[in-house]
Amino acid sequence: MTTDATDIAGDTYEKLLALLDERGAAYRVIEHAPEGATEAVSALRGHALDRAAKCIIAMVKIGKKEKRFALVVVPGDRRVDLAAVKALYGGTYVSFASPETAEELAGSPSGTILPFAFDERLELVVDPALLAQPEFFFNAARLDRSIALSAEDYRAIAEPRVERVSTG
């Protein structure tokens, strides 16, 4: 990762903390060994996999000319249902965004993508199963820091579109 990418991720981390503080969110910062895989980082943080937010950026083509990007957030024990995402947009094709595109839109490296859409080109779509938890966890634009956040505060701050977009 280049210094520029590290700087961008640091800016995204600071932007997240500033937003949570500004809005009075109930959250904790958790420091841990660098890890981006949902299963491994959940073990480091000491919680069940269904309490982790897995954040994936999908690219949806609508016809031949229009392309949209969705930041899809599902519980860590589930997978993104691409067919459901495609149906939400009335798309003709859907795939995971390339790692380069995902990192650019997220403002952080793969494995650290936040469940917040800071880029206007992203629409935030969250599976309701994640919001059923009182608190959930996610890497905070860094491999060595995570956030434990109240689901109620998250919903109020992020204002996600809530749709069933996961599969077991």
Reconstruct the topology from this structure.
Blueprint: H1 3-22, E1 27-31, H2 38-45, E2 53-62, E3 66-75, E4 79-80, H3 82-89, E5 93-96, H4 99-106, E6 122-126, H5 128-131, E7 135-139, E8 145-150, H6 151-158, E9 161-162, E10 166-167
Parallel strand pairs: 3-6, 6-9
Antiparallel strand pairs: 1-8, 2-3, 2-5, 4-10, 7-8
Structure characterization notes:
By secondary structure, this protein is α+β, with helices and mostly antiparallel strands. Helix content is 33%, strand content 30%. The protein has six helices and ten strands, in the order αβαβββαβαβαββαββ. The strands form three sheets. A five-stranded mixed β-sheet has the order 5-2-3-6-9. The N and C termini lie far apart (33 Å). The model has no long low-confidence stretch (mean pLDDT 94).
Note the main sheet. Answer: 5 strands, mixed
Number of helices: 6
Query: In total, how many beta strands?
Result: 10
Q: What pattern of helices and strands is seen along the backbone?
A: HEHEEEHEHEHEEHEE
The amount of beta strand, in percent, is 25-35%
Backbone shape: globular
SS-based structural class? Answer: alpha+beta
Helix content: 25-40%
Residue runs with pLDDT of under 50 for 5 or more positions? none
What average pLDDT do the residues reach? 94
Multimeric organization: single chain
Query: How are the strands ordered across the major sheet?
Result: 5-2-3-6-9
* First and last CA, distance: 33 Å
Radius of gyration: 15 Å
